[in-house]
Amino acid sequence: MTASERDLLVAGVDVGGTNxxxxxxxxxxxxxxxxxxxxxxGGPDEVLDTISRLIASLDADPVAVGVGIPGxxxxxxxxxxxxLAGWHERFDLVASLQERIDLPIALGNDANVGLLGEWLAxxxxxxxxxxxxxxxxxxxxxxxxxxxxxxxxxxxAGEIGHVVVLAxxxxxxxxxxxxxxxxxxxRSMRGVASAMVDAGWTxxxxxxRDDEDKSSLTSKVWARAxxxxxxxxxxxxxxxxxxxxxxVGSAINLxxxxxxxxxxxLAEKLGSDLADRIAAAAEPWMLRPSPDLRFxxxxxxxxxxxxxxxxxxxxxxxxx
Amino acid sequence: MTASERDLLVAGVDVGGTNxxxxxxxxxxxxxxxxxxxxxxGGPDEVLDTISRLIASLDADPVAVGVGIPGxxxxxxxxxxxxLAGWHERFDLVASLQERIDLPIALGNDANVGLLGEWLAxxxxxxxxxxxxxxxxxxxxxxxxxxxxxxxxxxxAGEIGHVVVLAxxxxxxxxxxxxxxxxxxxRSMRGVASAMVDAGWTxxxxxxRDDEDKSSLTSKVWARAxxxxxxxxxxxxxxxxxxxxxxVGSAINLxxxxxxxxxxxLAEKLGSDLADRIAAAAEPWMLRPSPDLRFxxxxxxxxxxxxxxxxxxxxxxxxx
Lengths: 320, 320
Description:
Two copies of one chain form a homodimer.
Chain A: H1 3-6, E1 10-15, E2 19-25, E3 31-38, H2 44-57, E4 65-69, E5 72-74, E6 77-80, H3 93-100, E7 105-109, H4 110-121, E8 130-135, E9 139-145, E10 148-150, H5 181-184, H6 186-198, H7 205-211, H8 219-227, H9 231-255, E11 259-263, H10 265-270, H11 272-282, E12 294-297, H12 303-319
Parallel strand pairs in A: 1-4, 4-7, 8-11, 11-12
Antiparallel strand pairs in A: 1-2, 2-3, 5-6, 8-9, 9-10
Helix pairs in contact in A: 2-3, 4-12, 6-9, 7-8, 9-11
């Protein structure tokens, strides 16, 4: 890489519930260097300190920084962050990070930013109407509509996990009853798995968790239990897929989409099988699917958030 | 009106299941003359003959024609028309109508076109993210997203009536189970009302229908039964509103909307009460509603389709 190419590098920052990942990204969306640290649990200032430290550790200086965060984002501020410890109120992240790093800084929601990465450089490249479906602790989502990222009135769009599939059904961690996430989010699935074990069912899920030295049922734990044909894990996963099919079918009826990108840890581990299964589950609910409709898995995997955040950074150079 | 103003008039055509309405519309979206006829049941050619005759009967010659039709529309063709008798296959409406009327012609889906009218000149004027919810024989919808009409990959977007609210629930006329329309479309509601009467319940709905000399349970019949506190009509209508609340809540979680416009015959008759009731029914399902979110009823009523179709006509003058 020449010096002139290095001048074009921006930093993409993906703040997750477990780790913060930072990458140096060029204008072809390629990642040239990475750094990673556990997400601090002490609130916004600790997170910004970690971001600054990770960026300083990269082997080149970026010309701008983009950050994806799991919260509602509007005009450079984070309005709510349900899944990060210590974030209780509105926080002007761009202004605060700029006090530490004197560069153009941009901010986006993590699911929207992840889809941006897949749309610019991954599985949804070139598509005009795309839903991103991220299977994780919860179920997140993002949208590309009419050939551009769609964030909604306040940056809160894309919540495919809180599309209601069975009004009055299972209690969701958001407090409502019948959201897709109540059946397909790993946090909810773990709660049901525990209850089933208490009721006398057997499963290898918790043994695999201990064997893998994890503190929760991660996607790796689920993937291993499914691979080993664990009956309870299979039953819970089937329910998750069926439920996501309903939510995605509703989204397609409302938005007439062309591509559904499935991402998150399970997508990395199960690959295109997972996309095929969700496609099959969605098909019965679709009124008029486009003949061009495709279900694909994330191509960038962990890099999707970094690449998407970097693209926000690149836009921030222009817009200030 | 001067001759130069007349030069700017375009025709908006609203093809409904019952009537075809045509209006002469100026560039301020005002309607200057109207004509109306029952929708022929003999298929596309009869419909085009009626449109041509209605346009010829107007007291000025339009410079372009826009048509809204209850079907999936793509690139000047009608792909499917579930609710018009005699339309069984793809039909090149623009090309065929142009053989009769030598003017620029544009085509849109009726629900999308109705929302376009409300967005340009009615209840959603100036809003950037809008859902139109049309309560009729079925439940139709349209979307304005990021400040422009959104039609999806193939022109099939906006189907709020086929957002699933209770997977596996009531059988919908589309063949799926649990769509909002299965609970809130007048056709489905009539079916349940008949069954309830067969089971011994009493209702004034069918007496009012006869008294009003209607052949079906029109919005006027429903409005009168509700006004007279008919218990069964009230129960069915409450279910419809609750169900629409779930579907609209899901749409808001997915799209972070600013305005929901409620239209159709019942909206005209019940007014803002209907919008308030749907708002109250949707509120419990919303994850993060925008503080600016508003629920309003259609202002243009029957003219929404004509005005929206006319705006398509005006665009067709420019694009050819």
